[in-house]
Design brief:
Strand order of the largest sheet: 7-6-8-14-15
Helix content: 25-40%
Structural class: alpha+beta
Oligomer: single chain
Number of domains: 2
CATH topology of the largest domain: Creatine Amidinohydrolase
Distance between the termini: 20 Å
Number of strands: 15
Number of helices: 7
CATH architecture of the largest domain: Alpha-Beta Complex
CATH superfamily of the largest domain: Creatinase/methionine aminopeptidase superfamily
Bound molecules: manganese (II) ion
Length: 295
Amino acid sequence: MKEKEKYLEAGRIAAEVMDEGYREIKEGVKLLDLANYVEKLIYEKGAKPAFPCNISVNSVAAHYSPDAWDETVIKKSDLVKLDLGVHVNGYIADIARSKIVGGNKSDLIKAAEEALENVIEAIKPGVTTSELGEAVEKTIESYGYRPIVNLTGHMLTRWNLHGGITIPNIKTTSGETLKEGQVFAIEPFATDGEGRVVDEPNAIIFRYLQDRPLRIKEAREILKYVKDNYNTLPFAERWIAHLVPRFKLNQALRQLVFTKAIYAYHILREKKRGLVSQAEHTVIVTKNGCEVTTL
Ligand code: MN
Ligand code: MN
């Protein structure tokens, strides 16, 4: 299976980049430098980022990728989630790990990691997404924490990060049945907060949706560029900042979002500002179980 080899190659590269990136999660490191470092490594290894490198800190759960002017520096005791995606000709690997800066692995991190392990153990053809969600929920609750109910794992298909089926972090009333050959990113999130994320007002990650008539010249330029370069996969504001003057960038992006030419991934924060941990691997469902691509 040619496809499988591409998924495995993307997974191997993602795992290597994660090892190197994870080591650089240190006090005093700028988020911007870490994101650029991770993405450069992906290119050096002959692949491309499947989405902007996400570095979400403390109560931010997901969708934070520094913009070109971000001065945020990693501090001691921060809970940092590094989430990165790699693609090889559209075949995607998605991996995430959490770290306490300058500290030992906390129970909150262990809860997410063990939930991930338990899901990987349980995956085989015929298992339902609800059963997998229940495994996440039970594991995280056994640590005294809550799973984040409105974040999910997701099926991966070529050029598509969210291929239809989701893997919940809780037991659900209905569910889909997994089949051999399907590819999934499994990503339990644990929190000491309420167990739900809410949108922040701003977004720094976007995705091309469709061509639209656009009044602003810079918006037209950006749309053409992202369609040509990132296809249907997400892109960072940082990746297009060189195209137009800074004062035009926000205006152009606002028009692109408003006209539904692009989709905005809002930064997601835990509702009660609880700490959030995450663990993620990508797997291929096999005849008797699954194969983790991102090891
Ligand atoms: Mn991810
Ligand atoms: Mn994912």
